[in-house]
Amino acid sequence: MPALTHNICPLFLFLSFTLLSFGFCSPYARPTEVPASMNASSYQTIQHSNHSNASESVHGRGNSDRHCQPFYTTFSDPSTVADSNSNPSNSPFVALSPPETYAITSNGLEMYLQRPKGEVHSANGMNDNLGEAATINSTFWMDSGKVTYEASCDYVPGVVCAFILIDAVQVSDGELHLDEIDVELVGSGSARWQTNIFKPSKADPEPHYGQFDTKEQYPQNPSYTSFHKYSISWDSEKIVWGVDGQDARTIRKEDTYINGVPHFPGESDSLRLQLGIWDGSGAEGTSTWAGGPVNWDTAPQKIVATVRSVSVEC
Ligand SMILES: *[C@@H]1O[C@H](CO)[C@@H](O)[C@H](O)[C@H]1NC(C)=O
Ligand SMILES: *[C@@H]1O[C@H](CO)[C@@H](O)[C@H](O)[C@H]1NC(C)=O
Ligand SMILES: *[C@@H]1O[C@H](CO)[C@@H](O)[C@H](O)[C@H]1NC(C)=O
Ligand SMILES: *[C@@H]1O[C@H](CO)[C@@H](O)[C@H](O)[C@H]1NC(C)=O
Description:
The chain has 314 residues and is mainly beta. It is 7% helix and 37% strand. It has one domain: Jelly Rolls (Sandwich). Strands 1, 4, 5, 9, 16, 17, 18 and 22 form an 8-stranded antiparallel sheet that branches. An 8-stranded mixed sheet has the order 2-3-8-21-10-13-14-15, with no helix packed on it. The relative contact order is 0.24. It holds the Pfam family Glyco_hydro_16.
């Protein structure tokens, strides 16, 4: 993706246009056995620990609530995702989008992008009306560890499925914290999956959209419409992405310097998980990157990303 392309998560449309003019974003079968580190009792621990502090906007390494804790879910229990109006303190995930944008089904967590209400006009490679779609946060944080998202994504040009790690949006001492480590399934083609990182800082607030993105292959079943296991392992030195149990890409902190400034996410802050599907038709650069704009004359009325499981290993 070329620099200055606007790759904007829906969550940040508001921020990107009004606050800082930044835009950031961003298989196999159902597992039959749970790794020992992620058994039901450790899930219960997570479920029943109080995550009311997880919504604090200021956080960092060293806070005992932020360390990596093993976690595993197949989204079999509806309480795994708290809706946007309820108290999320007893759920590992909370929806940012309305209840109709997602469902806990026998397939796992289904996240939807719905056809926009009303007319959609396309011009200059964009649509003037975007579909409502799901964004779901974890209520827990990690300061390192390995996350695995087992997921599939419908292939529709203009649509992006995103399985990411993300910092809180905050500005302290003029420093913008908006780190991301991304896995994105992009409507420009379903045969590959994409990785990216973002780490704006006071020293260099540029998003560098196209600087660190890559397209990765699948060892088998080369389409993101099938379920695959996407993993992100990270610590303060390096990030390793994998698919279906094979390492795909490693980036080290020293690989992320631009003009002497490091752009290594998650180094000094904890990250939370974020799952989503979004309509990339809203900005020209994003739309081009996503293979859009979405053609709603031919696209399904409801486009689906399905998450079968999420695990955290520490
Ligand atoms: C479950 O996992 C926890 C730590 O994650 C461990 O202490 C406990 O012994 C495990 N229980 C079983 C039955 O494996
Ligand atoms: C939340 O934070 C407060 C103070 O920061 C602390 O006293 C309390 O124990 C925390 N609660 C949980 C459940 O971590
Ligand atoms: C968990 O947080 C809620 C408020 O968000 C509070 O009412 C409740 O007492 C807390 N439970 C524990 C065990 O700290
Ligand atoms: C979801 O995560 C983003 C990024 O950390 C944060 O800005 C937002 O406030 C979170 N929303 C909820 C409801 O947790």
